[in-house]
Structures are given as C-alpha cells and as structure tokens.
Amino acid sequence: MDERGGPWRWGEDDSGTPILHVDMDAFFASVEVAARPGLRGRAMVVGGRERGVVLAATYEARAFGIRSGMPMATAIARLPSVIVVPPDHESYRRVSRQVMAVLAEITPQLQQVSVDEAFLDVSGARRRLGSPARIGTLVRERVRREVGLPISVGIASTMFVAKVASTRAKPDGMLLVPEHATVDFLHALPVAALWGVGESTASRLADLGIRTVAELATAPRSSLAARLGPAAAHRLHDLAWGRDPRVVTPERTERSVSAEHTFPVDVTDRAELARTALAQTHTCARRLREAGMLARGVTLKVRLADFTTLTRSRRLDVPTDVAAALHGTVRALLAAVDVPATGVRLIGVRADDLVVAAGTPVQATLGDDGDDRRALEVAVDAVDRRFGGGAAVAASLLQAPPVPATQPTPSDPAVGAREPVPDRSRGDRTGRRADEPGPRSGLRRDSTTATPKPRIS
Amino acid sequence: MKFTVERDVLAEAVTWTARSLPSRPSIPVLAGVRIEASAEGLALSSFDYEVSAVSEITADVAEPGSLLVSGRLLAEISRALPARPVEVTVEGTRAVLTCGSSRFTLLTMPIEDYPSLPALPPASGTIDAHAFAEAVGQVTVAASRDETLPLLTGVRIEIEDDLLTLLATDRYRLAMREVSWNPATRGISATALVRARTLSEVAKSLTSAGSISLSLPTGQGSDIVGFEAGGRRTTSLLVDGDYPPVRRLFPEVTTSHAVVTTSSLIEAARRVALVAERNTPIRLEFSEGQVVLEAGQGEDAQASEAIEASFEGEAVTTAYNPGYLLDALGAVGKEFTRLSFTHGTKPSVITGQTALDSTTDEGFRYLIQPIRFAG
Predict the structure, then answer these.
(1) B374 with A406: Cβ contact below 8 A
(2) How many interface pairs between A and B have CB atoms less than 8 angstroms apart?
(3) pLDDT band at A30, cuts 50/70/90?
C-alpha cells in the first residue's frame, strides 16, 4: 500500500470487472532506460532536439513540469540539463510487439489501441488464470520479467472506467474499480478525466458550474445538451454514470504503415527529397512484409517550411509489399508536388488500405511476376536483421534513373552492394545526437527522425 | 477575307480539326481553329504543341485570307446551323458567319500569335484505312491508362518493309498486331511510339478515306509521326523513351491448347464476372472437351459455368482479371478463339481462328498474365 491507497483502495471485489486496460509507463522513455541503465533515475526526454516535441518524459523529468507533446525548446527551458534522446521507433515497435505478445498469451480478447496501450477482456481466462485482479498482477509481473518494463493496469467493468483506472494507477501500479464502486470512483474525479473532455469542453462545463464528474452526473441533461449539443451531452452523461457500451474488439489488421522524416534544415533539393522518399518506401515495404500485409494505396505527405501540409494519395493497380512496386507511385506523387523556394520541412510515405497478404489475388506483371524483386528485398531484410542495420538501403536503387516497369532491373544490386551507413554520420548530420551515455546501435534506426542518407559513390 | 462553304462540309471539318483542342489551353490562341482561305479552298488547322490537325475542304473563296476563332464555338455553331451554304467574312476583329437567316458574330483571336504547325514528314507508306483502324482498335485496349507510366500509354508502331506491327502493353497484358501495308520504299524500317488515345482517335476518324498514309520518323532529330487521308492530316509528338523489348515475352512453345467459340466464352465470362469483385479474378479450368469458368470464393457470391471447348494437352487451371480476358476476346475478331498455355501461372496466348479446326491467325496475338494468390 502506498500513499495512493494501492490497488484495492476502492475495494477487492473483482467479480464484475473483466476489463483490463494496460498502459506502459512513459513508454518510449522506459524503453530507453531499460536499454541503458545509466539513464535510470535521470530526467530524460525522448524527442528531436532541434525542432521536435517531447514524445515521452521520465517521471524524473515530469517533476520539472515537462510533459509529452510539449515543444522540446520549452522542455529544455524548464530543465536545461535534461537528457534528450532521439526516438528509436524501430525498437519501440519491437518492444511493443513483445508486450502485445505477452498480452495475447493472457487472452485473445485483446484490443491494441496504440503502441503502448491495450484493452483485455479476461472473462474467458478466469478459469485458466484466475480472477481479473490476479490476471492484472500476472500481466504486470510477466511484462516486468519478460520485457523489463513497468506497466500500469486498470481493472473495471467497462473499457472507459478501466482506462481511467490505469491512469490513476500510474506509475507502475494497478487499480481495481469494483463494479459497485464505479459511480463513487467516477464521481470523485474532475470532468477532465472523462474520455473526450478536453480544454474547450471543460471550460464550457465550467460555465455551467460543473467541475467534477459528480456535478456532471447530476446536471440536467437538457442544460448539458444546450451547451454541448445533444450527442455529446448524452455521451458524457453516460460516462459520468459509468455506462460505456463498447466491447473489447480484437483488431488484428494494421490500417497503414508509414515512415516520416523531419529534416534538420528545410530542404529544397528535389534529389534529396526523392532519396528520402525512396528510403521511406523501403521502410514501409519491409514493414508490410513483416506484418504479412499488402498495400493497396500510397500516400505522400509533405510539410512545407510554413507548416502547410500536403498529402497526395493514389490507389495502386495491384496490391503489393515490394518497394520497387510502391516506388513508381511515390515518385509520381512527389513529382506532382511544387517545392517552394522556402523548402520542405518534413516528408513521409505511407502505405495504406492494407489487406492481409495470404490468399489475396495479385495481378502479376508480364515477364516479371514480382517474385524476383520481392526475393531481393526479402534477402535485404535478412541482411538488415543480421547486421542490425535498418540504415542500409539498396544503393544502386537510390541513384537509379527511372526504370521502365516492364523491364527487369538488371542493375539491382547484389546484396553485398548494400552498405550499413555508419550511425555516427547520421547522428551528426541531424545534429540530434545528444549527451546520452553509451552507444547503442539501435538508437538511430528510426524512420521518423533519421532516414538514412544515401551514399553517392 | 470572304468564302462560302457547305454546312455539312464545314461542320465535319471543324469537328475533326477541333477534336483534340485543349479545354484549358496554356495560351489562349491554342483554343482556336485557324482557317486559311485560298484559291484551292479552305485549310482548317489546330495545334496544341503535341497534336496538330489540318483539314482541307473545298469552298468558294471570294477573297483569300486567314482567320483564328474559338474552335469549340465554331464547331458547336456549324453543327447547329441549317443545311444551307455558310458565308464567312471578316469585319475588323470580328468574323461574321451567315447561314440562311442565322447570323453569328465571333471575336477573332490574334493570328500572329498562333504557332506554326509542324510539317508532315515524308510518307513512309500507305495502308487500307479500315484495316488500320481495326488493327489499332485491337491493340489499344492493352495500352496503359496510367499517366505515371507515360511509356506504356503509347502504342509502338514498327514498320519493316511491307509489314506493319502494332504493340501495346500495360504490363499485365500485351497485344500485338501484324498487318501488311504498302511501303513507300522497299526495305523501309522505322519505329514510333504514339499515345494510344491519340492513335485511336486518328485511326477511327480517318476511315472515310480509302487508304491512309503514315509518316514515321526515319532519322535523328525527327520526333513526330504523321497520318494523312482524304484531305486530313494530323501529326503527334512521339512518346519519349525506349520501348521495352516486349516481343520476347511471348512463349516460344506452348504445351496446352483450347479452342472455344468466341461469343460463348465472352457471354460466359461476362456472366461469371458479375460476382468477381474489383481486382479479383475469374478462374478458368480447361480439360478435355470443356472449360469451367468460376468466380467468387469463401462467403462471397459465387458463380460458375461450363462451356464446350476443344482441348489438347495437360489440364490447365488459371485465373485472369475478367476485364483483361474480355478485352482480348473482343479484339480477336474471329469466330473462334484459341488459348495457348505453358502453365496455369504463366502467361497465356490468345489468338483467333475462323474455324474450330483451322490454323490460328497469328496476325493478332494477345498475351495475358494470370492473377496469382499472395502467399
């Protein structure tokens, strides 16, 4: 029992609470700390130092008022000595998969809602694993032991209340809200704890004199509806009484995979944009293959120096997980973008409208049924895994002029033509390598901040 | 400038000349049709820097001169006029068009700003206009409509002495038509890549003449192709790029062969394809005496139909995009269709023949890549 009252402060009856919400604590930051114990106990944030935002902050950094979503400049202003670590989304995804794999062993009734968050409905696991509270404890132990990270668990009768409970359990805690205690638990909270209540709704509610969930629950629905609209009023009122009709829905398919890169300096050089987009195309294709998915559409995102964001999408003739096939469309989309003299701040490629690859009909191409190029890229995947270098991209493709699609690409490189780009060079290039202790090769393999710079040889 | 011309003659000529005018031209004069009146009659022309068209018609020219007016407007007006002679005069910056009791006044455009049209290259030879239109129609179905692959939106024209070959592919199927023609000089050899849409329009619109004259670029530095027939001539810029060596995609040997009645297969394929969702195939299972067509799977709607087929070789099961199959069957132009296979997952060759047991017509060949299922 700690000062927050521990997991049982609302009671120990978990008979009507089959819903678990599990949420990693300061996920990106925790992954970095686990990888480099030298960071433990330090005020550290994950994010781009130059122009980024705080993606995650350790609890030590939070003590200085640093929050995720805050501009990095603000965070540094609050604590100039804060350690800034560039994000490594590749390893966050990997760790996320490990966590989700643990959860999937608890129950298949698993709904992943983000990289570090999921709902479980353990109704069907009770006989095998015990009551929801026992399972919550088991989840925490297993994730701690097998992945090495802290995770908080909220247990309640509905998804919404479980989510609020996990928030109240943090860091590294668990909170059970027995079914009979649901209303008492909610009514003690400020309205901002409710799902969907942001600043503007909170201030409108404050206009009505409503600051707590209890006040919201007892407010006349008509006055809520007049202020918030009937739909929102209805929903908030339901939430205030713990009513949430949602059920845990296992969602197995990813909807898209993407890679983005914010340039350290705005870029006007089309060749550099094209190279970055090509590298991102390879990243997307590799992730499609890993996930066993095919993309039926491609989207190019370009953010200009003035923050105008352009997105250009196109459907593909044929669903694919091959970069060489995606790239023709990416290139055409990029060619249609006017690059202003002030340059481009961010570029990103997204493969979307995904379908499960197995059994999907694919119109093959004459003279090249796609297997050759796919085989090449799969071989390259293997090299990447072996040498740990997501940085490596087929060098000749990076420089190749447009190749007619019906022709095989004889210049396709042998696997050996790929070279791992030294991490340090990219770190230096982006200027984002900070004062983090100890080198770790995975750290710079992040598609969103450190797209590999191609070599021109 | 003053001339009188028959309404039908004018309407047809303007409609043809203005057919490819851009709706939003890069410079305003390109929306115009230029009319030159001389002792020989009228020459109407249009040009958008890619395609040029000139139509020569007879007219009673009282006063020679030239004039540039909106092609779209002139085409609409001339089609709507009563069937009477049309008189056109220029008064200052206006063209006045009188027909019966109708009178139109059109603003002219500055003719001095109008670009000069490319000269028609020397003729490479001639071909029957209907045969040409048929051949073009057979291959253009296979050309790509994907503007991101400009090379494949073209039809490759090859001439080799008295043989003219047309090729088009969108990577998923390949259509090739060989047809004999009359070369201007023995042993001539030339190639051109022409946008399929342009070629298709040109071929269809020049069938009123008996034969059509083709001008292919013969040497360095010439980058247009020309067509001329019955007082109409048109040029087009070539599509850039080296056409891939697609002929070698046709298999040298095929091991299984089916012959079916073209119309039965078209009808069966159309029916069965009704349940094939976008990007999903119809499956064809060929065996002794029949082909079974199927589409749909799992919990989706399903259809199947068997039709008679003469079949030799190992049984073959394959799957095609139904649209690609129907394009082929619509293009063979013969009562019977032959499908030749090496393997169900390899491209098949579709040809036509006049009788169940006649030799197949190799003049038109259509190669179709099956759909496979991702693993």
Answers:
(1) no
(2) 74
(3) very high
Other CB atoms within 10 A of residue A375 CB: 11
Q: Best mutation site among B250, B318, B327, B372 for testing chain A: the one with the most A CBs within 10 Å?
A: B372
Share of chain B above pLDDT 90, in %: 83
CA distance B179 to B135: 8
Q: Which among A22, A13, A171, A238 is positioned nearest to A109, based on CA atoms?
A: A22
User: In angstroms, rounded to a whole number, what is the distance separating the alpha carbons of residues B238 and B225?
Assistant: 7
**By mean pLDDT, which of A81-95, B70-84, B128-142 is the weakest?**
A81-95
Helix (H, G, I), strand (E, B) or coil at B350: strand
Q: Which residues contact A397 (CB under 8 A, 6 or more apart)?
A: A278, A323, A324, A327, A412, A413
Closest partner CB to A358 (pick from B241, B321, B375): B375
Distance CA B324, CA B174 (A): 10
Residue whose tokens read 């995720």: A68
Cα–Cα dist A446/A252, whole Å: 24
pLDDT at B258 over 70: yes
Q: How far apart are CA B22 and CA A457, in angstroms?
A: 45
What's the complex ipTM? 0.82
Residues 168-207 of A with CB under 8 A from B: none
d(CA B117, CA B54): 9
For residue B218, is pLDDT > 80?
A: no
Domains by residue range for chain B, with CATH: 2-113 (3.10.150.10), 125-247 (3.10.150.10), 250-368 (3.10.150.10)
With 0-12 CB in 10 A as exposed, 13-18 as middle and 19+ as buried, what is A264? middle
- Give the ranges where chain B is alpha helix by DSSP (H): 7-17, 71-80, 129-140, 196-205, 262-273, 322-332
CA nearest to A251, candidates A108, A358, A400 = A108
Residues B35-64 have pLDDT tens digits of 999 999 999 999 999 999 999 999 999 999
HEC secondary structure over chain A: CCCCCCCCCCCCCCCCCCEEEEEECCHHHHHHHHHCHHHCCCCEEEECCCCCEEEEECHHHHCCCCCCCCEHHHHHHHCCCCEEECCCHHHHHHHHHHHHHHHHHHCCCEEEEECCEEEEECHHHHHHHCCHHHHHHHHHHHHHHHCCCCEEEEEECCHHHHHHHHHHHCCCCEEECCHHHHHHHHHCCEHHHCCCCCHHHHHHHHHCCCCEHHHHHHCCHHHHHHHHCHHHHHHHHHHHCCCCCCCCCCCCCCCEEEEEEEEEEEECCHHHHHHHHHHHHHHHHHHHHHHCEEEEEEEEEEEECCCCEEEEEEEEEEEECCHHHHHHHHHHHHHCCCCCCCCEEEEEEEEEEEEECCCCEEECECCECCHHHHHHHHHHHHHHHHHCCCCCCCHHHHHCCCCCCCCCCCCCCCHHHCCCCCHHHHHHHHCCCCCCCCCCHHHHCCCCCCCCCCCCC
Q: Do A405 and B169 make contact, defined as CB atoms within 8 angstroms?
A: no
Torsion of CA A113, A118, A123, A125, to 10 degrees: 130
**B166 vs B356: which has the higher pLDDT:** B166
User: Which residues are within 8 A (CB) of B281 and not within 5 positions of it... i.e. 6 or more apart?
Assistant: A361, B295, B319, B320, B321, B322, B370, B371
Amino acid identity at A445: R
- From chain A residues 343-362, the ones with a CB under 8 A of any chain B CB are 357-362
Q: Mean pLDDT of all residues in chain B?
A: 93
Partner-chain residue, chosen from A314, A319, A406, that has the shortest CB–CB distance to B246: A406
- Burial level of B83, CB count in 10 A (0-12/13-18/19+)? exposed
Structure tokens at B45: 């022309």
**A361 vs B371: CB contact, 8 Å cut-off?**
yes
